[in-house]
Amino acid sequence: MKIAILGFGTVGKGVYEIVKKANMQTQNLSVSHILIRKNKVRTMPEMTDDMSEILTDKDVDVVVEVMGGIEPAHEYILAALNHGKNVITANKAVVAIYLKEFTEAAERNHVKFYFEASVGGGIPWIQGLEKALRIDNVNSISGIFNGTSNFILDQMSKKGQPFVEVLKEAQKLGYAEADPSADIDGYDIANKLCISADIAYDIDIKNHQKLPIFGIRNITCEDVKYFQKRGLAVKLIGRSHQKDNKFDYVVEPALFLDQTLEANTPDNYNLISLNGETIGKLDFFGQGAGMLPTANAIVQDILDVKERKSHLKRDFDKRMEYCPDLTKGDYLLRTKVNVSELFKNYQVSKEGSYLVVHQIPVGMMHKLMKLVLQEDKAAFMVSLPDQEVA
């Protein structure tokens, strides 16, 4: 089986490294093309800067897209599918927007489009979710989807270091990009939660980044210490519920009791959970990113294509209503401005330097928080344990 790799960064090199191993050679896998940027020096015989060379090569069975970003990844994936190539990607940003389009193109051209590595890195989350869906309706998804933000919060908790210092350490270790916005502001999680919800509910979420998202940019050492005194750990999580043909979706900092699995998920690890009608709660834990864990998931998908293993088929055409008020909860809010007028319709109490907003719909809390941030750019909010579906 001949493989073309689009992009030769960290994950692309990981795929190449695994495929070159002796035991993979017995699987008859080989890399025949590596797409690099125009005018970049070719250091390997497999390298090319011409996508058409890959598309027109009838011997290429699988195209692995690990370029990242939206374009030209979207264009190249569609072109490969339309040329009868199986496609595997780790690119959550492009999958979150175009999952339905890619799935339809694959079916139309009698090829496969697999994307296990796009959510949870080396964790078999997508296949675990699909397996649960063979029997159950999955009524909720939640978890720590991003290793960079988890590393930052875990280190702040363990070492008492400020956010900025821990972020620099994460960048030195290669956990965080030079521009860490996608990780610390929650957009990476938003992409992964979108993909998960699309599969779980068989829907096609549009404009998911306009839904409630609040990151950890404003968290302080004092916040973390205060939570610890209360026996709580803070994590940046994504979660979604469905009920009566309605669904919600949120990315936000959340507090967990010290004895929970979420509170004890360390470093850059991920912990993603689903809840099914008969299976109950299932947790998936492991390396959510990194060269070899992510490449491992990609090669697993390659082997599924080779062995003609079909994944669960979803049409992504179920009609569901996004309901920002589906879930209610309690929130801690830290701000220097007077917010009594903003929250006049909800019970608010004082707790140290924080306000507790009681039983407010999640969507409304995020809406009001945007108004708070207009007056206080350093304001921070975090959800308390035990949110409930209304």
From TrEMBL:
<comment type="similarity">
    <text>Belongs to the homoserine dehydrogenase family.</text>
</comment>
<keyword id="KW-0560">Oxidoreductase</keyword>
<keyword id="KW-0791">Threonine biosynthesis</keyword>
<dbReference type="GO" id="GO:0009086">
    <property type="term" value="P:methionine biosynthetic process"/>
</dbReference>
<comment type="pathway">
    <text>Amino-acid biosynthesis; L-methionine biosynthesis via de novo pathway; L-homoserine from L-aspartate: step 3/3.</text>
</comment>
<keyword id="KW-0486">Methionine biosynthesis</keyword>
<dbReference type="InterPro" id="IPR036291">
    <property type="entry name" value="NAD(P)-bd_dom_sf"/>
</dbReference>
<dbReference type="GO" id="GO:0050661">
    <property type="term" value="F:NADP binding"/>
</dbReference>
<dbReference type="GO" id="GO:0009088">
    <property type="term" value="P:threonine biosynthetic process"/>
</dbReference>
<keyword id="KW-0028">Amino-acid biosynthesis</keyword>
<feature type="domain" description="Homoserine dehydrogenase catalytic">
    <location>
        <begin position="124"/>
        <end position="303"/>
    </location>
</feature>
<dbReference type="Pfam" id="PF03447">
    <property type="entry name" value="NAD_binding_3"/>
</dbReference>
<keyword id="KW-0521">NADP</keyword>
<dbReference type="InterPro" id="IPR019811">
    <property type="entry name" value="HDH_CS"/>
</dbReference>
<keyword id="KW-0915">Sodium</keyword>
<dbReference type="InterPro" id="IPR005106">
    <property type="entry name" value="Asp/hSer_DH_NAD-bd"/>
</dbReference>
<protein>
    <recommendedName>
        <fullName>Homoserine dehydrogenase</fullName>
        <ecNumber>1.1.1.3</ecNumber>
    </recommendedName>
</protein>
<feature type="domain" description="Aspartate/homoserine dehydrogenase NAD-binding">
    <location>
        <begin position="7"/>
        <end position="116"/>
    </location>
</feature>
<dbReference type="GO" id="GO:0004412">
    <property type="term" value="F:homoserine dehydrogenase activity"/>
</dbReference>
<dbReference type="InterPro" id="IPR001342">
    <property type="entry name" value="HDH_cat"/>
</dbReference>
<dbReference type="Pfam" id="PF00742">
    <property type="entry name" value="Homoserine_dh"/>
</dbReference>
<comment type="pathway">
    <text>Amino-acid biosynthesis; L-threonine biosynthesis; L-threonine from L-aspartate: step 3/5.</text>
</comment>
